[in-house]
Amino acid sequence: FLVLSKPAERSFQCISLSTLISQVVDIMYPQAILQNIELDFISWDQESDGIFGDAYELKKVFMNVLKNAIEVMPQGGKVKITQTTTDDNQIRVSIEDQGVGMTSDEMHKIFSPFYTSKDNGTGLGLAHAIQIIEDHGGSIEVESELYQGSTFHILLPLYHLDDMKDKIMPNYSKPDWEVITTN
């Protein structure tokens, strides 16, 4: 609860989103295998997937969404993770499961603190996730159909090297990124 109510100090830097997601998939792979679930990560435009953010916080978001996808498929299945760029200069990461899906009412509540459909859940995971993504200038969209599964679309602003050097380092002379801490 304190994490949600207190602004966090974050270290923002240039990050390759496909690399970050690959790391998260590697971390979550053993849990997926134990549940008889295949994790399939498809990334397009890997050369232009730079974002500006806190890698630690973003990893927590993707781990939480993947963990939820794995947990809604007790009989096994496949979680498909796709990364694309949008026409409005954003990166969209879609995480699609083959779980039980959600009703419209559940979809409207899932980002509320303390709302959970799990027996042992706290209801803070997705509330924290949306806060982190919004702090990064992004958004989360959800599509779901009952008994057909759910797809979480995480959108984050795409940054190009030329944009970054002007915004972060006015006296830019070489392609080294400084770590910037914000509150």
What would a concise description of this structure say?
This protein is 35% helix and 29% strand.
Report on this structure.
The protein is α+β, with helices and mostly antiparallel strands and 183 residues long. It has helices at residues 2-5, 17-34, 55-71, 104-109, 125-135, 161-168; strands spanning 10-16, 37-43, 50-53, 77-85, 90-96, 139-145, 149-157, 180-182. Strand 6 and strand 7 (149-157) form a beta hairpin. Helix 2 (17-34) packs parallel to helix 3 (55-71) and helix 3 runs antiparallel to helix 5. The longest helix has 18 residues, at 17-34. It is globular. The model is unreliable at 1-5 and 168-183 (pLDDT under 50).
Entry keywords:
single chain; globular; disordered C terminus; alpha+beta; 183 residues; disordered N terminus; five-stranded mixed β-sheet; three-stranded antiparallel β-sheet
What is the fold's blueprint, element by element?
Elements: H1 2-5, E1 10-16, H2 17-34, E2 37-43, E3 50-53, H3 55-71, E4 77-85, E5 90-96, H4 104-109, H5 125-135, E6 139-145, E7 149-157, H6 161-168, E8 180-182
Parallel strand pairs: 2-4
Antiparallel strand pairs: 1-3, 1-8, 4-5, 5-7, 6-7
Helix pairs in contact: 2-3, 3-5
The oligomeric state of the chains shown is: single chain
Compute the CA-based radius of gyration.
17 Å
Number of strands: 8
Which whole number gives the mean pLDDT?
82
Within the largest sheet, what's the order of strands? 2-4-5-7-6
List low-confidence stretches. 1-5, 168-183
Number of helices in the DSSP assignment:
6
Derived structural class: alpha+beta
- Profile the largest sheet: 5 strands, mixed
Give the DSSP E fraction (strand runs of 2 or more residues).
25-35%
What percent of residues adopt helix (DSSP H or I)? 25-40%
Q: How far do the termini sit from each other?
A: 18 Å
Order of helices and strands: HEHEEHEEHHEEHE
Taken from the alpha-carbon principal axes, the silhouette is globular
